[in-house]
Amino acid sequence: MKPMKKSTKHLPLKTSLAALVCAVALPYTSHGLILIDTNTLNLNIAGKIDFGDNGLVVRTATVGTPTAGVYDGLSGYAQSGLNIADDQSNWWWGAGFASSNARVAAQSNLLLGVGVIDNNQAALGGYLYGPAGLVGANFCNVALANALTGTEILTRVSYWGDSDLNGIIDGTDYSLIDNGFNNQLTGWLWGDYDYNGVVDGTDYSLIDNSFNNQGSPMLTGDPKPVSGVVPEPTTLCLLSLSALGILTKRNRNRSN
Length: 256
Fold this sequence. Notes:
The protein is of the alpha/beta class.
């Protein structure tokens, strides 16, 4: 029997899909900031998306909540990708939402993570971007074919502790984690950066480390087209995206 022939496909800077289904992990090389915009997303037990330092918009999904420390929804994919029960060399390289960039950082400076937040800010009291959520025609500074309406789930690689996923650790992120801690909230937005189902001292250590060592805001990437291999049928995928260097360091003392 002849092996299945694989086709080569080029993705543009922004890719809009009706659905993204990943069954297994495949090499997929790219350069620059890539934003995948899909209506639905389904990863099976072996499916993996390597975000590199990039982003994902899912139009129809749930951010997820933890039960006995295990998240469902898209946060469950991030928790699985973090793979924190494994050796540290494999952090952010499990099935689900992985990141080759964050995996490298996990072995050195622990600066990067994969954040998943709900853009339905009306349901969250308009805490971040007002009652309508983050709206408009771009996310991660990449223009979208269809503007955000405030009902999406937003995912991206950013500094490990960037609650609002705006590419920088600032006072807003500390306000969010403090609110999450004081009110026993869960999820990346409220400071559960290690996806263990609770905001605790580990999360504060992560955000402090990122604040003290972050470089330039993670806003844009090198806008080059992406090329790679996608199998037939197109239910198999791994998106391996480009690296981002950590630039300058900044120190800050934070009192308890």
